[in-house]
Every structure is written in structure tokens, then in C-alpha cells.
Amino acid sequence: MTPAQPTEAAPTDDLPSPLRARGRRTRARFLEAGAIVFASKGLHAARVDDVVAVADTSHGAFYLYFSSKEDLFDSLVAEVADHLQELIDDLPPIRDTPSGRAALREWLARFAELYELYGAIIRTWTEAELFGDRSGQRGNDALGGLAAAMTANIRIPKRSGLDPAIASLALMTMVERVNYYTATGQLQATADEVLDTLVDVIAAAVFR
Amino acid sequence: MTPAQPTEAAPTDDLPSPLRARGRRTRARFLEAGAIVFASKGLHAARVDDVVAVADTSHGAFYLYFSSKEDLFDSLVAEVADHLQELIDDLPPIRDTPSGRAALREWLARFAELYELYGAIIRTWTEAELFGDRSGQRGNDALGGLAAAMTANIRIPKRSGLDPAIASLALMTMVERVNYYTATGQLQATADEVLDTLVDVIAAAVFR
Amino acid sequence: MTPAQPTEAAPTDDLPSPLRARGRRTRARFLEAGAIVFASKGLHAARVDDVVAVADTSHGAFYLYFSSKEDLFDSLVAEVADHLQELIDDLPPIRDTPSGRAALREWLARFAELYELYGAIIRTWTEAELFGDRSGQRGNDALGGLAAAMTANIRIPKRSGLDPAIASLALMTMVERVNYYTATGQLQATADEVLDTLVDVIAAAVFR
Amino acid sequence: MTPAQPTEAAPTDDLPSPLRARGRRTRARFLEAGAIVFASKGLHAARVDDVVAVADTSHGAFYLYFSSKEDLFDSLVAEVADHLQELIDDLPPIRDTPSGRAALREWLARFAELYELYGAIIRTWTEAELFGDRSGQRGNDALGGLAAAMTANIRIPKRSGLDPAIASLALMTMVERVNYYTATGQLQATADEVLDTLVDVIAAAVFR
DNA sequence: TATGAATGAGATTTCATTCAT
DNA sequence: AATGAATGAAATCTCATTCAT
Question: Strand F nucleotides below 7 A of a protein CB?
């Protein structure tokens, strides 16, 4: 607003000036607040009021960083999708050997960890995606990517009635849902028990 | 499923007078309209206006039969939960014999049929349940009941690392999700292929 | 109230045919119901629904006998105003003699009786009158008539500072309000105590 | 009454920042507008639309300061009740001496002044109270307090048939009603005439 | 004469977004 | 960069009255 501020000018200037630092901090506060609010109320029921209250700032400030409620949601989805992509890139080849099982177990543990952190957003984008929201689609594409990676990686032996694409999708969604029930406390089980069971079911399904 | 449903017959008044009949028909129109609208927009985004438009009646009439949008949703959930309960009651014992597999396949087919009819509502109540709505919980309890019934029925052999409760929940949610992807057209596969794969994965998981 | 009332007498036809009798009974039911509902909720808050429910009939029937909610209220007001007019006509001359006091006491007792019966309507028309309703004015005119009659009757001695019109209005409204507090249970006192006090205050005010 | 009212100063936040000041001004505008609208239409018939129109703001702003129409009414009642309490506290002892009569007359004048200012609200809360509204009760408690204070203060000589509680309630309601008829223009009399008459009637009733 | 379903205008309330400071 | 007041479009819900039977 004040004419002597060159701050806003520079989309060309990378200097982490103190002013920019403050702004970045505020933006981060909104992202955190958004994660909390979307997780507890869902995309539609979440109010900008709620986000502003949790972030302990003002309405005006919100629209300084995000063009709309959906924009905030998109930003969060992008963040999570990045993490999922890393997982996809790291999916180990699935083998029926002790080390192969260990690698799968390890990978499932990483997935569970991510889910514990971002599950709420993932569940929210499922809602968004079901009803035509663009950002929900982007998020779910990432999840779908996991299944695709599995399909490519698993080398399911061609047995009668076991379509690799369907099977891997089935298994991947199973993993997701079990983590969901665990994360929401609806499934009372230790992480170890869950991992053991999932590894076992996947292995059993894939290797004869 | 059974054509003669006596459940809806006597809500408060026993007289099947012709006047009452008209009201019952209108109420049914709202239920149908609700199913359509909730399915396409979700619980929050759905407007009473939309329901009224689809049912081709008036605002006032809506509130004659339902006290709110949520009330309509509850009624739909109750309807679907009843159907799910029938399925729960009919889950066959799972055996690794040709006839056992056939029974399982048959049952999965019935589930898929129900899902095709009511999947939209089920998906919507997942949304509702995630964010604290009571009726969503009621619906999901019904789904959870399926898993519980499976746990009771499946007689999963105690193998190291295979907890029956976790396993059956995992398998049941897998079934639900695969049907979801199929119903929404995200999984391109024939019903037969899907059923074969599911039977196979379940059998493999359960019988060593 | 009694079925043999030829009062409403037939615009064209006098025969108390059975059909007409039924109609008259229904109309009476609405009047009773209206008295109850208006008394407990007031003119604005009272719903035609409530009246219909109390009368245990139908919406359609209501509009067969009254053109609107206000019409019903008007009819009730007219009924009460008639009774008040009788009282006005019977106001005894007020004298400071034992028999004069007894006559006043007797008359106040009749007023109290009427108030117990119709006080709710009187209170309601006060509401109506305050905010411009025509029927409220008609009702209050009747009450005002009482004060006017008193002014004419009391023969207040011209003392300095005692304007007869103001004094009689003051006394009459006092009577009305005390009956109101008694009727609503806000004043805990026997009828005798109330009458004694009112007679005493009026006499004291009027006669020296 | 006192020019420096610290009551309204610090609602929740102590900072008298210029921003807060604007909000306080807007809230005050709604209170004024409410007084006008309730006075002319009553509690039920008054529309939030009317209040918003008189205050010349927006619907949204209204709900920023009051949770509902009733909330606004409550706030107004609280305001008036505070003023009435001051009057109660200031009721002079009633003595049959020139100075005692003068004090009573003075006090009645203050009551009349208050009634001219807030009579509309008082009349409205009578409506509310009659039909079960909580805030109406609170307001009328204040009026009742006046009678109670009178009972305590007046020292009506115990004469046969003159119950002090009934008498003071009778006299107080008379005062209120006469002011009502005066304020609404139904009683054509100068303030002096009214005061003289009221003092006279009260004195006559109390002192034999 | 009576019923009860249906209507629709109008009221209340919410909330994403903009604006003045 | 930030604040918080204000806006107004759109949603929910109510209820006096009409209509078909």
C-alpha cells in the first residue's frame, strides 16, 4: 500500500528479506490450520472462519495468501501428493523371499506413517473427488498411482481369475482402508499386528 | 429385495385411506430424489432446492415429510442399512471347497448388486461419518457389521501374523472399495473378472 | 354454547336442519380452540395449525367458517366485548354508604369472574391493539367504556388536583391489572382480600 | 442517566482501538433501530429486515452483533431494566407531609419521563412476558420490583381490608397504566394534571 | 361438510469474500 | 502485511391459505 515498498514488486527477487519471512510464516500457519480444520470437518463444512480462528489471524490476511477456500485445499493436496509420489517411486519389487517380505513390510510401515500424518487430508479429498472437485481428483490420482505402481511391480503370476490390475488395486485400497480404520481408532490393533496381517494377506494373494 | 415390504406400511396411522396413499407416494418421491441428489453432490453440497426440483414438488411439501435435509438423509441411510443387515444375516460360511467358493462368489455378487443400487448413498455416508454426522455412523456401523459377521463366519486358521479380525476387516473393505471403483467407472473390468479376483484373493488369504 | 341457540340465525333460512347444526358445532369448536390457543401464545405466535389441532378438525374446515386467523380473533373479541358491555350497563352508582360499598364490591366480583373466564383474550387484544390491529381496538374500546361509565357514575367530589376522568381511568385500569396479576397467579391472594382492598382504595380515592 | 456510563465500555476486549469503536457504533445503531421497530410493531411482527432497514446496514452485520431477533430484544430489555432498577433504588419514603408528597410527585415525574423514553419497550415486553418469553419475564420482574419496593417503603397503615402487598401492587400498576394511556395519547391530559391525580389517589389510599 | 396434501411468498440465517483503515 | 467490519447472495425453514377429493 505504501508507495515506498518494493517488496511486492519482486517475483524476480529471491532474497529472503525479513518481510518475506514473516509472510511465509503466516502462509504456513494457514496451511497448518487448514489441515486441522479440513480434517475435522471436511471440505464443505469447513468455514474460512474456522481456519482464520485456528490460525489466529484475520479474514483479510487469508485472502492475501489464498484466492479462495478451495485454493487453500489445493495447496494442501499438492503437498500430500508430493509425499505420495515419493512412496510410489520407492515401492520395492515384491518377492516371496524373506528379504522381499521385509522390504514390503518396511514400505507398508512408511505408508502407515504418512497416513497417520496426512490421512485426514486424504480422507477429505476422497470426499471432494466423489463430488467432482478438481483438487480431489488430483489427490486421488496420486493414490491411483500407487495401485498402478503395484501392478507394474508385483509380477502377479497369471493364475486363472486373478487379474493383476484388479488385484493390485484391491490390495492397495485394502491397505489404505485398514490404515484409515487404524488411524481413526476404529480398529484396535498394534502397528505390528496390522503390518503382519497385511503382508501376509498380500503375499498369500499374490503367491499362489 | 423382497417385493412385499411391510416395513413402510404403517408409519403412524393404520388406515390405508386413499388420502394417506397420496402422501406416502410423495414421501417416496422425496426419498428417490434425495438418493439421486446426494449421490451426485454429496451431503453438504446437496440443496433442499435440488431435491425439491428433482421430486418436482414444493418447498413446503418437503418439510411436511422431513424436518430437515439431514432427516431425509437419515431416512435413506436407514433404508440402506436394512438391506445391508439382510446381507449380513445371509453371509455363507466360507469353505475352501468348490461349493464354498461358489457360495462366496454368489454372496459377493449380491453385495455388488446392492452396491450398484445404493453405492452412492454408502459413499455419501462415509463422507458424513468422517465428519461426525450421526447418521453416517449408523450407516458405517452396518458396514462394520459385515466385517464382524465375516470375522465370525470365516474361521480363518490361526496362522502366525494373521489376526482374524484385522484380516476380515481388511478383506471386507477391499470388497467395498473394489465395488466402489467399479461402480464409479474408475475400474474397467467385467463383473465376472472382479468377482473371480475377489474370491481368489479372499480364498488365498484365508486358506493359507 | 348450548345447542338450542337460535342466535346465529340463518341469513335466509331459519330451519335448524341437522346439517346446519353440525356446522354450528364445528364453528363453536374453533372458537373454543381459538380462545385456548390465543391465550397461551398470543395473536401473532398462534398458528392456524395449533387451532386446528386443538379443535381436532382440518385446515380446510377452518376456512369454511373463518376467512382468516384474524377473523377468528375478531369473533372472539366480539363475544367478550358483548359481555363487557353488560357490565358497563350494570355499573352501580358509587356511594360512600354501606350499601354503596356492597354494590361496588358485588360489581367488582362480577368483573373478576369475567376476567377469569376471558382474561386471556383481553390480554391478547391489548397486544393486538398496541400494534395497530383493528380488532384489538374494538376490544379496548370496550374496556375504555368501563372507565367512561365510571367517570359518569362516580360523582367524584371536585377536589383540587383530582381530575375525575383521569381518576376513574386510573382506578379502572388498576382493577384490570390487579385481576390480571391474580388470574396469572402472580399475585397470591384470596378473592376476598383482593376485593376488599380494591373497594377500600377506590372509596378512599373518591371520597375525600 | 448518568452521562458517563462505564457499563457499555468494555464488552470483551479492553483495547479502545479505533477499529473496535466502529463496531460499537454499529451495535448501538441496531439497538436504536430495534427500539423503534419493536415499539411500532411488537416483538413478533417485527422483522429483522425492518431493523436492518432502519439501522441502514446489512443482514450480515446484524448477525455479527446479535445471534437472533430475540437476542436484540433481550439486550434492549436489559438496558431498560437497568434504568428501572435505579428508580427502585430511589423510591422515597412515602409520608403524608407536604415534603413527602412533593418527593412522591417528583419520583412519579421521573417514572413518567422514563416511560416516555422506554414505554414502547416496556409495553412490548409485556407482550413477550404474557406468552412465555424469558426476556419478557426479566423485564416484568423489574416492574414487579417497583411494587415490591413500594410495599417495603410505603408503610401503609394496617387497616382492615387493606393488604399492603395488594395495595401497593395495585397502585404501582395503576401508575404504569396511566402513563401508558398518556404516552400513547389515549389519555388527553397535561403531565401536571396526571401527576396531581396520581399523588392524590395514592395518598388517599394510603393515609386513610 | 370435511379432509389432508400441497403451495409459495416471505422470513431467518449463514458465510465466502471485499473493503476501509 | 494485517486487521476486523461489512456485504449480499444464497440457503434453510415457516405457515397462512388453497385445492383436489
Answer: 1-21
CATH of the domain at B58: 1.10.10
Residues A181 and A80 in one domain: yes
> Coil, helix or strand for D68?
coil
Residue B25 resides in a domain = yes
For chain C (208 residues), the mean pLDDT of every run of 10, in chain order, is: 42 54 91 91 88 96 95 90 86 87 94 86 73 67 73 62 78 85 82 91 80
Q: Determine the Cα–Cα distance for residues C139 and C38; give it in Å rounded to an integer.
A: 14
Which residues of C fall within a CB distance of 8 Å from D169? 178, 181, 187
pLDDT tens-digit series, residues D41-99:
888 889 999 999 999 999 999 999 999 998 999 899 888 888 888 888 888 887 889 99
Interface test with B, best of A96, A175, A187, A199 (most B CBs within 10 A): A187
| Residues A198, A182 share a domain | yes
Q: Is the CB of A47 under 7 A from strand F?
A: no
User: Are A51 and A126 in the same domain?
Assistant: no
Kindly state the cell numbers that stand for B96: 475352501
Same domain for D80 and D52: no
C71/F21 CA-to-C1' distance in Å: 27
Instruction: List the B13 CA – F20 C1' distance (angstroms).
Output: 22
Neighbour-count burial of B175, counting CB atoms closer than 10 A to its CB (0-12 exposed, 13-18 middle, 19+ buried): buried
Does A17 score more than 60 pLDDT?
no
| Domain assignment of residue C84, yes or no | yes
Residues B105 and B39 in one domain: no
Question: Nearest nucleotide to A62 by CA–C1' distance?
Answer: F2
- What values do phi and psi take at B66, rounded to 5? -135, 140
**Residue numbers in A 63-92, CB below 7 Å of strand E:** 63, 68-69
What total number of domains does chain D contain?
A: 2
The residue whose grid cell reads 383493528 is C134
Distance A192 CA to F15 C1' (A): 61
Distance CA C26, CA C33 (A): 11
Query: Is residue A10 one of the residues assigned to a domain?
Result: no
Q: Is there a contact between B131 and A45 if contact means CB atoms under 8 Å apart? A: yes
CA distance D101 to C161: 13
Would you say the C-beta of B44 is within 7 Å of strand F?
Answer: no
Based on the domain organization, do B111 and B46 belong to the same domain?
A: no
Q: What residues in A contact B160, CB-CB < 8 Å?
A: 196
Is there a domain that residue B78 lies in? yes
Q: Are C160 and C167 in contact (CB under 8 A)?
A: no
Please tell me whether residues D138 and D184 are part of one structural domain: yes
Is the CB of D196 less than 8 angstroms away from the CB of C163?
A: yes
The cell 479505533 sits on which residue?
D18
End-to-end Cα spacing for chain B = 35
Residue B67 C-alpha cell reads as: 424436518
Indicate yes or no: CB of B177 within 8 angstroms of CB of A167.
Answer: no
Q: What is each CA distance from B49 to A122, B135, B205, C13, in whole angstroms?
A: 30, 21, 48, 51
Give the domain range for residue C193.
74-206
For chain D residues 32-61, those near strand F by a CB cutoff of 7 A are 57-61
Question: In angstroms, what is the C-alpha Rg of chain D?
Answer: 19
- Give the span between the Cα atoms of D63 and D86, in whole angstroms: 31
Residue recorded with cell 372472539: C76
B 11-70: CB within 7 Å of strand E: 19-20, 22-23, 25-26, 57-61, 63-64
- Residue A67 burial (CB count, 10 A): 11
> How would you class C182 by CB atoms within 10 Å of its CB: exposed for 0-12, middle for 13-18, buried for 19 or more?
buried
Domain CATH number, residue D165: 1.10.357.10
Check: pTM over 0.85? Answer yes or no.
Answer: no
Same structural domain, D79 and D125:
yes
Short-list C83, C65, C166, CA closest to C122: C83
Cα–Cα distance for residue pair B86/B104, rounded to 1 Å? 15
